[in-house]
Amino acid sequence: MAVYLVYTLVPLAWLLISATKTQQDLLSTSGLAFGGTFALFDNIGQTFTHDNGIFLRWLGNTLLYVVVGAGGATALATAAGYGLAKYRFRGRRAVFAVLLGAIAIPGTALAVPTFLMFSNLGLTNTPWAIIIPSLVSPFGLYLVWTYTTEAVPDELLEAARIDGAGELRIFFTVTLRLLAPGVVTVALFAVVSTWNNYFLPLIMLSEPDWYPLTVGLNQWSAQASGVGAQPIYHLVITGSVVTIVPLVIAFLLLQRFWQSGLTAGSVKQ
Amino acid sequence: MTSISAPVEAPPARPVRPTRDVGRLRVDRKGWLFVAPFLVVFALVFLAPIAYAVWLSLFREQVFFGGTEFVGLANYAAVLGDGKFWESFLRVLLFLVVQVPVMLGLALVAALAIDSARLHAAGFFRIVVFLPYAVPAVVATLMWGFIYGDSFGLAADLNRLLGDDVVSPLSGDWILLSIGNIVTWEFVGYNMLILYSALKVVPNDLYEAAAIDGAGAFRTILSVKLPAIRGAVMIATIFSIIGSFQLFNEPNILRSLAPNAISTFYTPNMYAYNLSFGGQQYNYSATVAIVMGVITAIIAYVVQLRGSRKGA
């Protein structure tokens, strides 16, 4: 395990240490040693002001895509997972088969046709091109489904119905509370996949003003190695740290919830 | 395609059959209320693009006059005879055969180690091992790319230490290994978590029974834990296979650091992407995507069948 910890942490340590170096120190000092000057705050300042503060704009875009896309994905997956777990209706098995098939289809295989479709609809180069595809999470639905089976007793639903509560009211007042850890888990995974999404925005967006952090960072990096380039490695590295930190904090803060959400609703037989 | 999309479009307004044995649950059309919103978006972002891709794959761009021409299955024949396609396919296959067992093996060892009570600070290990999953592929690749690099990376430090150019992760001979390392680093923790979650729900009496039978720790792992988490191993394997065939982000981002080692058709996905966005060959690109999708689905399905047969 100790070896494994080193393997996991050394690259991250390298990244953190490098973020404290000036461009010059980066090139002249050893990777895991600090440079002559501690330039972290200077680097952060430069990251946010470089190129008229475009990085801040990318951060805002990422937040927009995450809040609307991942939020929507969680809501849709929660409702659908609950519906499939607790109601018997015609076509339920067909829905199940379609979803299983969807998990096996490589998402990237859909990307080119989705781009062409969205392009015909005039949606490329708009936030919708990123948000709409982020709204569907078959894996999230699967998690909610198994979690519901575990955590929401049928007797409770029946009791609520006898008390005269409507289906929607039952869902919002009874079910959602019981499902909380499962929903947090699904939300967290949806947030990660939207925050980290690279392929879809790369295809859909040509306007840097709509880029999320991932595409923007790679553009900065590619800029550094082109012909007549003006390298900004220190900004790429500091920007990377800024991109990771919010997710790591979210995972640490919500640890208790998502871990119980996974174990109760996981791949149990 | 029809076999998949037809049931979804089936109107929910048909008369409900008389209740069969469904326990306490009602046979209730109200279920659609909860499922329908998901399905509408699902149809828009999954089914429609698939249908559109199939449609596209039947046409070919006219070279001289513009517009497109119906060519039937000619694009499929072309893909199957395309040396670039097979080269990229064999490359991800090689990648899969080496990287997936290494990654899942590590994940399994980590999950078992954390699960066995002997390890102190199990919670700490769990979160640290999982940490890379929160790192975007772009950042992970840029980070490892810099580390691999000979200007200010750790590879340069190592070579300086050894006094020779021993490691060159960005050269043609090493690059696939280097990509494998990035992907392993990113996803061991994620797979560990899937396996660990499955281990957590193994009923305690199984362990007690094993202890009474005189099983040691190793024997317990072999006879109790591994069989109990076969389903989770299956799921992790299938996700990893799908992931390998989809390989795109890491090689595509590394390309700016190692343009000579990574071609535009390094993986099938990069090939499809570059056909579209570099060459405007949308119809042929759609065909490549479909062929890869079908191959992936078939292999995932076969692995699943074999896995469940072993369990019988």
TrEMBL record, chain B:
Pfam families: BPD_transp_1
CC per GO annotation: plasma membrane
UniProt key word Cell membrane: yes
Superkingdom of this protein's organism: Bacteria
Keyword field: Cell membrane, Membrane, Transmembrane, Transmembrane helix, Transport
Topological relation to the membrane, as annotated: Multi-pass membrane protein
Domain ABC transmembrane type-1: 89-303
InterPro entries: MetI-like (IPR000515), MetI-like_sf (IPR035906), UgpAE/MalFG_permease (IPR050809)
SUPFAM superfamilies: MetI-like
TM stretches of this protein: 32-55, 89-112, 124-147, 174-196, 228-248, 282-303
GO term, biological process aspect, one: transmembrane transport
Localization annotation: Cell membrane
PROSITE patterns: ABC_TM1 (PS50928)
Family: Belongs to the binding-protein-dependent transport system permease family.
Annotated protein name in UniProt: Carbohydrate ABC transporter membrane protein 1 (CUT1 family)
